[in-house]
Amino acid sequence: MEIYQDLIDKKAKLAVIGLGYVGLPIALEFARRISVIGFDINAKRVDMMKKGIDPSNELEKEEFEGCDIEFTDSLDKLREAKFFIVAVPTPVDEHNVPDLIPVIKASETIGKVIKKGDYVVYESTVYPGCTEEDCLPVIEKLSGLKLGEDFKLGYSPERINPGDKEHTLPRITKVVSGSDDKAMEEIAKTYEVVVKAGIHRASCIKVAEAAKIIENTQRDLNIALMNELSIIFDMIGINTYEVLEAAGTKWNFLRFQPGLVGGHCIGVDPYYLTYKSSELGYESRVILAGRVINDEMPLYVAKKIVQHIIKNAKEAMGARVLVMGATFKENVSDIRNSKVIDMVRELRAFSLNVDIVDPYADSKELQHEYGFPLAPVAGKNYDAIVLAVPHSQYKNLTEEYLLGITNPNAIFADLKGMYRNTFTNLQYWSL
Hints:
Blueprint: H1 4-8, E1 13-17, H2 23-31, E2 36-39, H3 43-50, E3 69-72, H4 75-78, E4 81-86, H5 101-113, E5 119-122, H6 130-143, E6 152-155, E7 174-178, H7 181-192, E8 199-201, H8 205-236, H9 240-247, H10 269-279, H11 286-312, E9 320-324, H12 339-349, E10 353-357, H13 363-370, E11 382-387, H14 399-404, E12 406-414, E13 427-429
Parallel strand pairs: 1-2, 1-4, 2-3, 4-5, 5-6, 7-8, 9-10, 9-11, 11-12, 12-13
Antiparallel strand pairs: 6-7
Helix pairs in contact: 5-6, 8-10, 8-11, 11-12
């Protein structure tokens, strides 16, 4: 089952299933070298991409140019592919239980179109064992084909970072794994077509799955430590960022910062690992402790704002709050699992009037997903301003501007410490 040379010679096509933040950049990168089929079940998104528009607002129109790619939602077209990459989302539900529906549906799709000699590689983040124990049986059942005898399987965790123009697919080491040695080499050679930073060959699929999970679990735990330190230092009466600045003078100090941890990776992936751990009879303590701290930070911030308003506003009930930033991180339009939303809900639960502005987020999408839109522009007479997301557009705020839209004794809550030691007449607080 040699596939690499056929792809290079354009005798075979590669398909990417799921064209979101992860799938579309992968599809376009491959399409600069080989023939690609971009498959998505959302016909509206497919139509946009046919016109050179990225529905996720991450890629510019010129990045579609010169690409040998056909966008489709047709299974018949998908059958033309010989190498399938699955890049669908893997979220958690409202109980923080892994939601495998998208990846299982994608496996069903592959089961309907796969042929002898084909390759399937999953990039979606899952717990160790999911590819072989949950996805593979679906493919074999629907196709009637057997792994090894009829087709090959692999896993290569995605490392797409929304908003990051430096760590792109060609520039970061790619971890790959295969169901056997032959699969490993063919998959590795295929990814080498687009990845210039090098390929790391994991010993097995489970190792590759686990590597992806702990990348984000490690970050989650380190940020949780910073958040807990921030709570403690606030009680002591010292600024967390000043402490981190001092500690950072040591050569091996890890430079993490406190903040709201959302998005589709760091705030989600650890739950996949703890779910698998629980399934095997081990209840995580450290990982879940970090998750609890980070999930509670929106409430902590909201309470700090409310406490200030009660002490300083003329009328606490119905006081006005401006929240700057709604996305899960800076300089992206992605609002999935944004913890800013949780903070806004907490503020509104205290009967505060909250306006939200964001230069990247889509107001209609925010309304659809969370039940409230963006304010067209920032208003006036705010009792608190929360700079929740450090978008580049917020890097040049002046104290005069902030004083002009706030009431006397208003607080400026600068969650990421962008304006530490900057203002003299405005009450200031940061994590």
